[in-house]
Amino acid sequence: RKEVEQDPGPFNVPEGATVAFNCTYSNSASQSFFWYRQDCRKEPKLLMSVYSSGNEDGRFTAQLNRASQYISLLIRDSKLSDSATYLCVVNRNNAGNMLTFGGGTRLMVKP
Amino acid sequence: DAGVIQSPRHEVTEMGQEVTLRCKPISGHNSLFWYRQTMMRGLELLIYFNNNVPIDDSGMPEDRFSAKMPNASFSTLKIQPSEPRDSAVYFCASSRLGGLYEQYFGPGTRLTVT
Fold it and tell me: Does A96 contact B107 at a Cβ distance shorter than 8 Å?
């Protein structure tokens, strides 16, 4: 079983749609969780951290369910510029430096 | 501020040749990471350094791979000898020390071994 699993997609949605991505992780000791975004042929960039209580940043909402070892990302009112691959990321060690990246979920927003 | 700098951006080499990838982390960052990304395996951590000291190299595929960080502003990843299966995008990332800090990635080196 992979340490971090994601549906690779692609998710094809129209502009303005709401789309949700899910991710499961296997290491119950993980403490830090993130969503990174990677545009085609570019480097990954942090989109947002994921907190236990859930957190929101504009049109983006991230949630964590520790009991189910499940992380989600919700994008509301999707824009063409949201088209990218979204990587679910979990820390691997107590110091938190080592990150495990999921395979990514590809999102394509169409006009 | 300059981000993480990697060179070269593209490298094409023949099987058996030595390849050296270079990275300059963001000034003030104490942690440096080398990753490899392929379609089949996704993004994998190869090795990371804290304060120039290698902490975990369990992701390094085999002895053909080696990494050094002689000072706080420079790191290299070397493959000797290179093989076609080493073809991938190699990213260097840096962060402040500690798990809650964002890792900033460089633009990557696209390596093709023929």
Answer: no
